[in-house]
Amino acid sequence: LRKPLPNSALTAEALGPYDEKLMRRTQRRASRLVRVAEDHSLPPEQASDLVDSIPTAWSARKRQVAVELVHAFASEGTVVRRGTFASLVGACRKAGELSQAEALLERLHGVGLGTNPNVYAALMGDLCAAGHPARALALEASMRKMGVRATNETLTVLLSSLGRAGAVEEALRLAQRIRIDAESGGAVYDLPLYNALLQALLVGGNEADVTRVIELLRAAGHVPSTRTLNVLLKGLVQTRGSLEAALEVFNSFCAAGGEPGVMSYNILLAGFAREGQLLNCEVLLSQLRQQGRHRAADDAEGTAPPEKLCQQEEEQRQEEEEEGAAVDAASRGSAVQ
Fold first, then answer.
1. pTM score, whole prediction
2. CB neighbours of residue 313 within 10 Å
3. 249: helix, strand or coil
């Protein structure tokens, strides 16, 4: 038996030859399986079943065998199901093997096929989280080239992921493209995507673009939600330091019949306290307490369930987190064939 390497010798340079040997062994095994399949005239449906039968979730070696098997089948002219591709892309992505996942999608594109937009959305989100926003945008461009139409969820995930990755310019360019598509009437966008669009424009765009997006949002029949208000307040207070504009947006929202949440008040309170404007803080606190008394009166009449302000804030925070990441979480589930 080969003597194991000491812990001090477990470096990338020392393990390189072992990784290459394992890769060659895996490729040879996949090639043998493909030759046996050809000898038995294995149709694409059964080839897909063969790949699907390999447990890829917990074993890196078996996952590598499945990946090499898919590539070997494609090289010989046998293309497995798109659902098999999507499932294997998901397994590689969850294991952190993003390059493998990209290579599988590139192989699928090479035979003129695309897959479910949620598969792309999840991988683009992971690429941005790993610090590769350029690769995420390249994947989105490749998806469009293959004729796969990006859904609202896909664009929301990409916009939010680019913002979290600090790729402000890239997010702004994408936001401008989405805004132009919305103006041309070529696409119908939902409220979460408009919220992500506003968030990106508030960081890197100008006020005219923000105003135009709000007009488009209303023209599309959407009513600005508390989440929309919080996105605007955060952008104006935390990013641009414009308390006056934030207060104007807040008052307009209230005048239109909207009911701001506790988090909305907290954003403004933090901004005014930072600037030393204690009088405005007192006014906002008074409004917040008054709002709490109205809700308590409604609760006493039985028109609403009893809840405290801290519970309202926590529920609203959870709601915003779910809205911002709902699609991302859904896209990380099982792929639709």
1. 0.69
2. 16
3. helix
